[in-house]
Amino acid sequence: MKESEAAESLRALAEWLDEHRSDWLHTVERWMLRSLPIPREVLLEVWPDSDWRDCLENFVVAPVDAQGKFDFENTGLLRDVESKRGFGVVDLDGETQWHESAAVMVPHPILIADLSGGNSIRSD
């Protein structure tokens, strides 16, 4: 059975899935390292895929408006993405907030200030 064509096809599929998961991880890492805005439409497309969601869920995100301005006052952990409600995040108080912004950014960790203080993102 190990040498059958079906077994070879399954091994090839498993390798392909591993490569794509690695590609997804690198894409999310690039978004974070460059603090790039991620359009809501992109997240709506990838969110149903459990591998993408595993890469993105619980990232610290900040809403981005249509002009590309980051809203550092409303950062939180990304928990959900819906077409009608927007981005669901859990804020520092543990409350779920929904933001209907055009995009979110995943700030580079160096931009995240001391979470025990008042600001959660450095603006300098």
Percent strand equals 15-25%
Content-based structural category: alpha+beta
Mean pLDDT: 84
Count of alpha and pi helical runs: 3
Describe the structure.
It contains three helices and six strands; from the N terminus they run αβααβββββ. By secondary structure, it is an alpha+beta fold. It has one domain. The protein has a six-stranded antiparallel beta sheet with strand order 1-6-2-3-4-5. A hairpin with a 5-residue loop joins strand 4 (86-90) and strand 5 (96-99).
What's this model, at a glance?
The protein is α+β, with helices and mostly antiparallel strands and 124 residues long. The protein has three helices and six strands; from the N terminus they run αβααβββββ.
Please supply descriptive tags for the structure shown above.
124 residues, alpha+beta, six-stranded antiparallel sheet, single chain, 35% helix, elongated
